[in-house]
Amino acid sequence: MSQGAGQAATVSLRNSVGSKLEVAKHGAHVLTWSPGVNEESVLFVSPAAKFGPQDAIRGGIPICFPQFGPRGALEQHGFCRKNNDWAIAKQDEKSVEFELKDSESTRASAWPHTFQVNYLVELTDEGNLATKMKVKNTGSEQFTFTCALHTYFGVGDISSTSVEGLRGCEYEDSLQGGKVLQEQEDAIRFEGEVDRVYGPTPQGDESGEDGEGTAEIEIKDQSHKRRICIFKSSSFPDAVVWNPWIEKSQKMADLPDDAYKRFVCVEVGAIRQPVSLQPQQEWEASQAISVKS
Ligand SMILES: O=P(O)(O)OC[C@H]1O[C@@H](O)[C@H](O)[C@@H](O)[C@@H]1O
Question: Where does substrate bind (predicted)?
Answer without folding.
Answer: 58, 76, 81
